[in-house]
């Protein structure tokens, strides 16, 4: 894949993530990548979010193409990480990669072994599609 797919972020998620980044003291490994993704995002009102887009608190099934490994995780804010293995922080490389992608999109991302490509296979739950517009 030569270019990144377009991404869409709800205005609520966008504002919360921008605020979180402003409050973060110091750097964390994915800060620049998350800021770059937010800078290139199309921002929509939560009620206008397409149901096939990964938003915050969405449960998404995805595959790492190089390994064929599929996972299902919920994309959460860092404070919601509780040690369970079914969540991924939006500050983690895979969380940054998933944010705003649509079903079928593929995006290369850094990994400890180099670069891997993540593909969104399905959105199993999306708050906006469930009518939870102000969670």
UniProtKB/TrEMBL annotation:
InterPro entries (alphabetical): GreA/GreB_C_sf, Rnk_N, Tscrpt_elong_fac_GreA/B_C, Tscrpt_elong_fac_GreA/B_fam
Domain Regulator of nucleoside diphosphate kinase N-terminal, residue spans: 5-43
Keyword vocabulary terms for this entry: Kinase, Transferase
Domain Transcription elongation factor GreA/GreB C-terminal: 50-125
UniProt xrefs under Pfam families: GreA_GreB (PF01272), Rnk_N (PF14760)
SUPFAM superfamilies per record: FKBP-like (SSF54534)
GO MF term list: kinase activity
NCBIfam families, sorted: PRK05753.1
Identification of the protein by name: Nucleoside diphosphate kinase regulator
Record organism: Diaphorobacter limosus
Lineage: Bacteria, Pseudomonadati, Pseudomonadota, Betaproteobacteria, Burkholderiales
């Amino acid at each position: 894949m030569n270019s990144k797919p377009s991404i869409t972020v709800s205005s609520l998620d966008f504002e919360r993530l921008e605020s979180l980044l402003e409050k973060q003291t110091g750097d964390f490994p994915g800060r620049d990548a998350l800021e770059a993704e937010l800078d290139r995002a199309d921002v929509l009102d939560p009620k206008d979010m397409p149901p096939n887009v990964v938003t915050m608190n969405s449960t998404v099934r995805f595959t790492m193409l190089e390994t064929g490994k599929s996972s299902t995780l919920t994309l959460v804010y860092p404070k919601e990480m509780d040690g369970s293995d079914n969540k991924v922080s939006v500050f983690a490389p895979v969380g940054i990669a998933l944010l705003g992608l649509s079903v079928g999109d593929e995006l290369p991302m850094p990994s400890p072994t180099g670069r891997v490509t993540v593909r969104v296979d399905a959105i199993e739950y999306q708050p906006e599609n469930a009518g939870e517009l102000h969670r």
